[in-house]
Amino acid sequence: MNNSWNKLIYKGWTPIYDKFFNVGPFSKARDSLFKEIHFRPGDRVLFVGVGTGADIERLPYDQLEITAIDYSEDMLQKAKDKFRNTSITFLKMDAQQLEFADASFDYVIGSLILSVVPDSKKAFREMVRVCRRDGLVVVFDKFAEPGKGLSIGKKTLRHVIKLLGTDIGVSFDDISSTERASVELIADEGVMFGNMYRRILLEKVC
C-alpha cells in the first residue's frame, strides 16, 4: 500500500463507505469507542484519518475543539459536508507526518487508519507525539491477535485485501513497540468479530 494507491481506492470507497462501515456491527463498535470517556467542554480532539466523519457523530462535537485530518480529499469532503455548520477544522494531511506541535491535543483518535497507512509505526508515533501528557490516544482498528500468527486463509486473503486499501495482518504490539515508554495501556478489548477489531486506549505518560 502507498499514499497514491490509497487516494485512488478511497475515492471509490467514499460514496458507499458509510453503507458498509457505519452500520450493523461497525456502528455498534463505533458506539462503544468512547464509553467511559468523559469529554469536557473545550477539550482539544484530533481525528487522524477521519474518513467520512462517522466517529464525530458519537461525540458532543459542538462542545469540543475538534480538528480532523485525512489524506483523501474525497473522504474529507464527505465529512465536511456532514458537519458544514460546525466549528470543526478539516485539513488534508498525512497521518504519517502530522503538521502539529508536540502535545497539541487532549485526545487523539485513530479509527481504521493504522491498518491503512503505508507506515503504521510512523503514524502511531505521530499520534503519540501530538497528544499532551496525561491525554488519551484512542484506537479502533483490526489487528492480528497477539501471540498468534495469521491463519492460512488470512495469509492468502491479506494480499488481495491490501488492494482494497487495508491490511488484516498488522500487529499492534509491533506498531507500538517504540512508544512503550511514552504511553500506558488503559484498555484493550475486542469489539467486533471476536478480537479481530479492537478498542485500545492509551494514556500519554511522558
From TrEMBL:
GO molecular function, one term: S-adenosylmethionine-dependent methyltransferase activity
An example Gene Ontology biological process: methylation
InterPro entries in the record: Methyltransf_11 (IPR013216), SAM-dependent_MTases_sf (IPR029063)
Pfam family, one: Methyltransf_11
SUPFAM superfamilies from the UniProt entry: S-adenosyl-L-methionine-dependent methyltransferases (SSF53335)
Protein origin, superkingdom: Bacteria
Record-annotated Methyltransferase type domain positions: 48-139
CDD domains: AdoMet_MTases
Keywords: Methyltransferase, Transferase
Protein name according to UniProt: Methyltransferase domain-containing protein
Annotated organism of origin: Mesobacillus selenatarsenatis
